[in-house]
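for the record, two folds in this file. i put them one after another cuz i was lazy. first one right below, seq on top, structure tokens after. the second one comes after a little note so u can tell where it starts
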Amino acid sequence: MMRARGSQITINLANRRLSYYEGNRLSKVYPVGVGKPATPTPTGSYTVISKIVHPGGMLGARWMGLSIPTGNYGIHGTNNPPSIGGYVSNGCIRMYNQDVVELFPRVAIGTPVEITAGTGGGEPVYPPASAPGGGIIHTVQPGESLWRIARKYGKDLGLIVRANNIENPDVIFPGQKIIIP
């Protein structure tokens, strides 16, 4: 299967879910295991930079490496299925082998991956530390609107506009850094 034009992956660490989008349409949601508190999964905007079939061992059936500059992180299968749904990894995103096998052919090198602290019945799991004074720095992806970004993080649009001194919320551009307070 070919990668859908404009596909992307979002990972919500609080609810431990990976969402795969084809264009603006949500195609599938998968349960995942993510980093434990001592070795959290880094939040931010990344891309898939490598793909390996049968990486072996604890990496399960497939590996999709991410462009996270602070280490060797990826989305991969697991030889420990009960770990899915928990805070268990050294920062990688674990999937059931059958799920990663299903997703793998749909994801191309260069696919955007947005990892957010998210919310799941309360505060974010890890306090985002990448923005001055707290918060998340989001890199605008092609086709995103400020309204969509606000909805993704569960934030008020006006709060984001004020935090970034945005004069016109209709004008943002790919690559622009937006602080999500």
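(here's the note) second protein begins now
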Amino acid sequence: MIISLRHLYYMNKGESLNNPLDKQRSTAISNRELFLSHVGQTSEAPLALEIVKAKGSTLWDVDGKTYIDLIAGISVCNIGHCHPRVVEAIKKQVDEYMHIMVLGELVESPQVAYAKKLTDHLPISLNSVFYTASGTEATEGAMKLAKRFTGRTQIISFKNSYHGSTQGALSIMGDEYWRNAFRPLLPDVMQLDYNSFDCLQNITERTACVVAETIQAEAGVLVPQNGWLSALRKRCNETGTLLVLDEIQCGFGRNGSLWAFEQFDVVPDILLLGKALGGGMPLGAFIADKRLMDSFTNHPVLGHINTFGGHPVSCAAGLAALNVLLDEKLIDGVKNKEALFLSLLVHPSIQSVHSCGLMIAVDFGSFEVNKKIIDALIQRGVFTDWFLFASGSLRIAPPLVISDAEIRIACGHVINVLNGN
């Protein structure tokens, strides 16, 4: 006899699925228990914090405890949680319409307005926006576009890179630990060393595209060194290879400029966006020249489609968030806040600190040490995490609106934990 998990759950509680009192009894089950029983888990020991409110750089749990947010939804909430202009834009759009059809056949004002705003603040060659529902989907679309436009098959990425978790994006992820359980993956993928000049010769006339994070985030905030990104751009030009820069995590001011690639005087052929793109709502995009993007219109028609990419409510929220970012000049304060963090995060237990704007990795040498520190900080009301490929490093990527006072409090807790206080 096959017994479902739901049957076992109720049997263990001495309840029947057919008992009319089940619904009444289930109200006594905590949200945490329901979460662990019915929501797909990604680890064996989730934090299971029950957050009921978020505003600015502060989170509140079900018991009223507050947390300084040093993660911002993994760089999603760049302008802070629940900015009133974003909330108002969402409400306004919901009153007009939500989902209609977003395959590019209908003119939907939120999509058009946001695409215009984005391209107004990008180099002239990045003028056509293809919306997706997430950053991972943006990666998938860009890979298809590069193959379709060039007629080539090879894709090159870099070790310790992260571009998403779907099978195409997983194929170019730069760590075998995360890939191995899901093979076979895409063929004809090569991975090179980030910041290595010698490796660039592996890019040839059969390479469709090179996909690189402008700032390697999950590797522990690694920054391109000594003109390496310019050399990568040059090699792509020499071989007719498309350069895809992933700013899903580092875009929208997090590194001290609107786009991280601006700091290196390099323009990609395709730009990947996500996370902060939606202002807290799910949204991704890949952006290229219209000459490239039109490759999806024929042979075959509908060369790339999705159901929810460019959802009107997400586009309305994202446009409002970008306007806030620019109008309130939030990017102007990023480098000063970075400097404040760096001045306060000084302790013999800290082995190194890597940073680029408000993307900071504090290295404690091992995951075991780092995890104890993270758990202690959460107990003290500082919400933070670790990096996929730098598990010994503490992640700091707060909303750009975090105040100097909040930075001092958060860093004070870090130092107190390290001192055993």
